[in-house]
Structure formats: structure tokens, C-alpha cells
Amino acid sequence: MNLMGMMSKITFSSAWGPRIRTAIDALKLDLPWIERLDMVNDLAPLAPELAVQLEKHEQKRANQFKGNAKIPYIKPEDDPILNDFKREMLFHRQAQAAVREGIKRLHDLGITTKRPDDYFAEMAKTDDHMQKKKMGKMLAKQTRVQREMDKKDMLDQLKKFRKGKLKNLDFLEDSKAAAGQKKKTDAKRKARDKKFGFGGKKKGLKRNTRESSGNIEKSGKNFRKPGKAGPPPQYF
């Protein structure tokens, strides 16, 4: 039989404090940092691509509140979705700062963090190949960030023009010129592909069409006109 009752408050004697500290000191191992690898550091600087992504995320949330009156407005600092995204960025920046400081400490202790060039065990792909891949990813990231920044600048210029701070739309001419240059380059690429390969449609080239079915050559001994039967077979 279970009985409901009030739980009495648990009190601890102050005499347990020194004993607990003694037990903790007995369990604690006085190891060097290379064995512990623990660090307390600040956040790493915010990367440009993360700043652009955060701004796009905030703008997207603002547009959702602006275009839908059924959703109650929430301040950016109180928005749980934005807070989750910022929290993930804090984890990323914290880990980045820990890696940077940890590598520096390892170098100060004389511990190498990269294998030498003449290391015996070689990867399946050469270092030159991986360096090319790394440079390609870096250039692609820089191009993506630059494109986002250009788009942001154009939107800012449009806002200034709408407010009357700008008298002309010269900045649109620059963007049109860049787009025209890209279109010209794409046309050259298509012409070369058509001449040397990789041009035009590839799928379904051998399928019959309405035109190909109607252009059958009418020749040969077995061809018969519709409506006329051939000679009867002869049996011997």
C-alpha cells in the first residue's frame, strides 16, 4: 500500500566538505596537458560565408513574418529558429578556435601535426591531386561569397534608388554588361561542343518519329501496294 506524504529536507553536515575534497584529490590524476587535451578558449572570428548565411536566414524569417499575418511576430533575439542557427554557429566557431589553439600548443611542445613529405605510407591519390581539389573548393567558395556580396550590394542600391537617394540606375548597366559577357561565353562554348562533341540532344536519337516513319524507301521485291494481292502459290 502506497502512502502519500511530505518528503523531509535532506541536510548535509559541513564535516563532509573536507572528506569530499580529499576523495576528489585522491581520484584526480595530475597528468600533463598532452594527456588531457583540455582547453578553455574564446570563439573564433565569424567567417564571411557564415555571416552571409546568417543574414540570409534572418531576412528569410523576416519575410515570413511580413507576408503572413497568421504567424505572430517574434523578435530576432527571441526567435527559436534563429537562436538554434546561431547556437550551431557558436559550436562551429568554438571548435574552430579549439583546433587553432590546440595545434599551436602542440607545436610549442615540439609535436608535429603534419606528416613529412617523404613519409613512407602514401595515399591512393597524390598530394598534388588533393592540393588541386583543395584550391578548386577554395576558389568556388570565394566565387560564391563574392556573388552573394554583389547581390546584396545591388539590392542595397535598389533600396536607395526607391528612397530617392540615387538619381540613376547606372549600377544596373554594369550588371547587364557582366551578364552579356557571360552569355557570349556560353554561346562560344555551345558552338564548340556542337562542332567537337558534347553538343545537342543525345537521348532518344535512334527512336522512330513521324517524319522518319513516313520516309521509308519503297523498293525491293517484297514490297506490295495495299489492296492488291499477289499471285496464288503453286504446288507441285
UniProtKB/TrEMBL annotation:
<feature type="compositionally biased region" description="Basic residues">
    <location>
        <begin position="181"/>
        <end position="193"/>
    </location>
</feature>
<dbReference type="InterPro" id="IPR008610">
    <property type="entry name" value="Ebp2"/>
</dbReference>
<keyword id="KW-0539">Nucleus</keyword>
<dbReference type="GO" id="GO:0034399">
    <property type="term" value="C:nuclear periphery"/>
</dbReference>
<comment type="similarity">
    <text>Belongs to the EBP2 family.</text>
</comment>
<dbReference type="Pfam" id="PF05890">
    <property type="entry name" value="Ebp2"/>
</dbReference>
<comment type="function">
    <text>Required for the processing of the 27S pre-rRNA.</text>
</comment>
<dbReference type="GO" id="GO:0005730">
    <property type="term" value="C:nucleolus"/>
</dbReference>
<keyword id="KW-0175">Coiled coil</keyword>
<dbReference type="GO" id="GO:0006364">
    <property type="term" value="P:rRNA processing"/>
</dbReference>
<dbReference type="GO" id="GO:0030687">
    <property type="term" value="C:preribosome, large subunit precursor"/>
</dbReference>
<dbReference type="GO" id="GO:0042273">
    <property type="term" value="P:ribosomal large subunit biogenesis"/>
</dbReference>
<keyword id="KW-0690">Ribosome biogenesis</keyword>
<protein>
    <submittedName>
        <fullName>Uncharacterized protein</fullName>
    </submittedName>
</protein>
<feature type="region of interest" description="Disordered">
    <location>
        <begin position="177"/>
        <end position="236"/>
    </location>
</feature>
